[in-house]
Amino acid sequence: MSRPTGLVASKGIELLTWSTPNGFKISILLEELKEAYGLQYTMQGIDIMQNVQKEPWFTAINPNGRIPAIVDHDNGGLAVFEGSAILSYLTRRHDPERRFSFAPDSDDYTRAESWIAWQHGGLGPMQGQANHFVRAAKEKIPYAMQRYVGETERLYGALDTRLKDRDYVVGDGRGKYSIADIALLGWVDFAPLATIDLAKFPAVLAWLRRCYERPAVKRGFAVPSLGSFSAYRGQEPEAADKTRELTKLVDQAKEQYGYKYASP
C-alpha cells in the first residue's frame, strides 16, 4: 500500500482509516451499508505508525490529526471526523430503512446516543489508556496500569449487565443490531490488548460472537487489514505469551494498590 498524499476519489464516500478500534467502527458500518443498499466507498489506509495523519493534507480534513475521517464528495467534499459523528452522518444519509439506526423521534434513538457517548467518552479513552500503560509505555507504572485496567473492567461490567438478557445493546425486546453495537465492536474485540479477559464477561463475549457472524462485520475488520489482537479470533502464540506476561504485571499492580473489582 503506497503512502497516501491526498484524496484520491472524486465522488461518493472516501474513508481515511487504519486498523484500530475507532477505525473499524466506520469500516464495519460502510460494509453494512454496502451490503444493504449497495453503497460504494473508496478507502485509503492511513498508517498511524508513520504519522501520515499528522501531514498537512490530512489535518486539513481532520484538524485533530486522528483517524478515522471521511470525505463525502457528493456533498460538496464535506469532511466528517470523530467516530460517533461519522456513524451518525452515514446513517442519516445512507440508512433510509433504519436497518442500523433508529428514527430520530424515537426513544431508542436517544438510547443509542447514550451508549455511543458511553463508548466515546468512557470505554474508548479508558481502554486506550490501559493499552498505553500496559503495552506502549517504556516504564511500567503500577498505579497507572491498575487504574486504567481496573476502570476498563468496571465499564465491561456495566456492558455485561446490559447484555445479560439482550442480544444487542439497544432496541425493543432483545434489541436490534445497530450503530450502538458497531461503535463498540472494535474496542471489545481488542480487549486482550489491555489484558482484559472477556471470559469474565460472558454476555459481552456472546454478543461479540453474535456480531462476528455478520459477513459485513468480518469484512469491516479487514479494512485496511486485520488487527493483531482479537478476542474473537484469538492471538498468535507469541502474542498470547506476551499477554500472559503483562497480565501478571497488572495483577501485581492491582494487589499492590488493593484493587477490588466492582461494577458499576
UniProtKB/TrEMBL annotation:
Domain GST N-terminal stretches: 10-98
CDD domains from the UniProt entry: GST_N_Ure2p_like
InterPro entries reported for this sequence: Glutathione-S-Trfase_C-like, Glutathione-S-Trfase_C_sf, Glutathione_S-Trfase, Glutathione_S-Trfase_N, GST_C, Thioredoxin-like_sf
A Pfam family of this chain: GST_C
Entry's transmembrane regions: none
Family of this protein: Belongs to the GST superfamily.
Protein name: Glutathione S-transferase II
Organism of derivation: Hirsutella minnesotensis 3608
